[in-house]
């Protein structure tokens, strides 16, 4: 795999396929991609607000000659806003997502995020944490547009002469994670199944699904792997994410069996080699999700409490 720099911008990985990278890869700083052939183009994800997405689309148009009006399809790899809040800027595009992701997108629309951020300064340490991680984004300037086509399992899209395979691997990071695979170009866009040099965050689980998704990525033998966050990677990068998932599963299980609370377990787990990864406080969400898995609790997480715990850990 060529050594692509982890700098903001558009990188052609070969044969009309591009990765758009956003350092530092932390909260909200997601990657996207463009798959083009002939006069057709497919966009993999948009960004956290409309301003960021406009800038990206302009850079893509300058590099490829294909602007927002030329993009026929957007694939959203999952429901988090940093991968879909710019959908509406491509007015002619069909927007494809898994059925589970489409349902999840409606749960936290951008106006709700804007309202939370407007009062963040009144929320004490949790509010300051929200400002620290999300203060760079403008949730009053978004272009939300929900999927126009959904699927479950697998689906394929033709982009010129390229076949693009959409493979649902969620629930894992979220309820409906999707991999975007271009077999002939040995390229895969993973969405947030991969955080490279950043801490994965498991809102949905089960952890076994996420580990299996990593196995699938490796088994497809891509030459180029574009993660949802962080630098372009290879199979070794995928294995490191797997190692983290196995590690926190073992560590959380020991503390669950010993009767520790989620809070105490999150404080107690020594992240060791993984402590250098960004946003390590996400261990709070991961432990909470694992505890609910162990107990068979299918209720949704207490997101407010978890952001409070992450603020405490940070």
Q: What descriptive keywords fit this protein?
A:
9 helices, five-stranded mixed sheet, 12 strands, seven-stranded mixed sheet, Metallo-beta-lactamase, Chain A, alpha/beta, 314 residues
What can you see in these coordinates?
With 314 residues, the chain is of the alpha/beta class. The chain has one domain: Ribonuclease Z/Hydroxyacylglutathione hydrolase-like (Metallo-beta-lactamase, Chain A). The chain has nine helices and twelve strands. The protein has a seven-stranded mixed β-sheet. The chain has a five-stranded mixed β-sheet with strand order 8-9-10-11-12, with no helix packed on it. Helix 4 (124-134) crosses helix 9 and helix 6 crosses helix 8. The longest helix has 23 residues, at 235-257. The mean pLDDT is 97.
Brief rundown of the structure:
The chain has nine helices and twelve strands. The chain is α/β, with parallel strands linked by helices.
């Amino acid at each position: 795999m060529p050594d692509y720099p982890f700098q903001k911008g558009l990188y052609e990985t070969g044969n009309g396929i591009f990765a758009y990278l956003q350092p530092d890869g932390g909260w909200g700083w997601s990657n996207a991609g463009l798959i083009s052939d002939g006069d057709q183009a497919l966009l993999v994800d948009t960004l956290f607000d409309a301003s960021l997405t406009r800038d990206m689309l302009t850079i893509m148009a300058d590099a490829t000659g294909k602007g927002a009006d030329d993009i026929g399809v957007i694939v959203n790899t999952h429901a988090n806003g940093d991968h879909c809040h710019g959908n509406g800027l491509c007015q002619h595009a069909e927007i494809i997502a898994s059925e589970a992701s489409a349902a999840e997108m409606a749960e936290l629309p951008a106006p709700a995020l804007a309202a939370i951020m407007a009062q963040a300064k009144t929320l004490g340490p949790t509010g300051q944490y929200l400002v620290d991680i999300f203060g760079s984004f403008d949730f009053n300037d978004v272009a939300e547009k929900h999927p126009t086509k959904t699927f479950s399992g697998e689906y394929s899209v033709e982009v010129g002469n390229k076949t693009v395979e959409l493979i649902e691997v969620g629930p894992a990071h979220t309820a409906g994670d999707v991999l975007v695979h271009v077999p002939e170009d040995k390229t895969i866009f993973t969405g947030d199944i991969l955080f490279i040099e950043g801490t994965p965050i498991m809102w949905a689980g089960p952890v076994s699904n996420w580990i299996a998704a990593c196995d699938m990525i490796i088994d497809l033998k891509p030459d180029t792997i574009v993660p949802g966050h962080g630098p372009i990677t290879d199979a070794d990068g995928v294995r490191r994410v797997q190692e983290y998932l196995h590690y926190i599963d073992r560590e959380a299980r020991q503390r669950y069996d010993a009767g520790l609370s989620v809070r105490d377990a999150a404080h107690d787990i020594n992240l060791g080699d993984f402590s250098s990864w960004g946003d390590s406080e996400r261990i709070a969400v991961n432990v909470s999700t694992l505890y609910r898995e162990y107990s068979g609790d299918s209720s949704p997480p207490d997101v407010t409490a978890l952001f409070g715990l992450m603020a405490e850990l940070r």
